[in-house]
Amino acid sequence: MSLYEILVIIQALSVLVLMIGTNWIFCVWKNKGYSILLMFGFSTLINNLGYLMEMTSKTSEAMLLGTKFEYVGKAFIPLSLFLIASRFCNVRVSEHVRRFLWGVHSAVIVLVLTCDYHKLWYTSIEYVDSGLFPHNVYGHGLFYNVYIILLMLYFIYLIVISIIFFRKKHDRMQGQRVRSIFACSVVCILGFVFFLSGLSRGYDTTAISYMICVGIIFYAIWRQNLFEALEIVKEYVMDNLYSVLVAVDKHDNLLFHNERARELFPDIEWNYTELINEYRQKIKEDAVIKRNDNVYRISTAPLHNGRRNLGCLYILDNITREYDYAKSIKLIARTDELSGLKNRRAFAHDISKIENQTSSNQYICVVMDI
Question: What's the pLDDT score for residue 229?
Fold first, then answer.
């Protein structure tokens, strides 16, 4: 059996394993983390299936078609790995960054699918019989090289957050998270460098490296229970809580906010400093916050880890019903039922308010009887 046949068998087995693993993730789908993991597995499945088509093709046109199909999944593998790593290491990625990256990787797919009509991604396509098996050799265009730089930045990010999180880890579970992410980073870099160096003789080693990464993450989910039940419960409760929660550290850096906070303040990741200052001013004035026809009462709670001060939690409770009810009761108490005008109680209150606001006791009062 030749090396080519062995590689084809490995590629076919990887597709079968990915189909089983992705189906398993879909069946045990519990929270947002599993959604990202499902995207990771499905993207890798499409990538490996497309590369299997490319390996078994006999013509340059068929190989190019396999490459296009492959990139439908390959473009989203680094993004999904980036999101998984950020979640594992408790790094919050803003919605603006997510949307930007989704746009970039979607643009990659468009560039590859339309590569016949431009030279932005591939400058040339040459069919060769050398190497482990016949394959296409592609000349790399401007956007391809930019994409390679982006991939390297992804891998550097994975290593950096792994090291930072490892230094902050407090228990065995966190250590397992770091080791999983670090292993994925190393595997991706090795596969990537090996392919670009030409040592693989035409075989795309990134396909097998991505497959290994999926295996590492799936194992971490299955055996190490990284998306454990307690985290699922916490996430569900925090996001579906009727109150708005915003946590900052002792330097006023944003630590956490739930989905209610994002709905109420869409730009909270960018303007949280102004928001925190507004919170403090409202607390000082003992005033409420009005947003989207709702009224919120704000309170604070200190965040402690033993004797160590970690920051502050701001809690916004929706008191719209209570506020409207108190306002209506106050209006009834100060309004004459017959005429709808202010009654004697309101008159006395307004006079007292005028006396407190004026520097002298001289003012004119006009009384009209009806």
Answer: 44
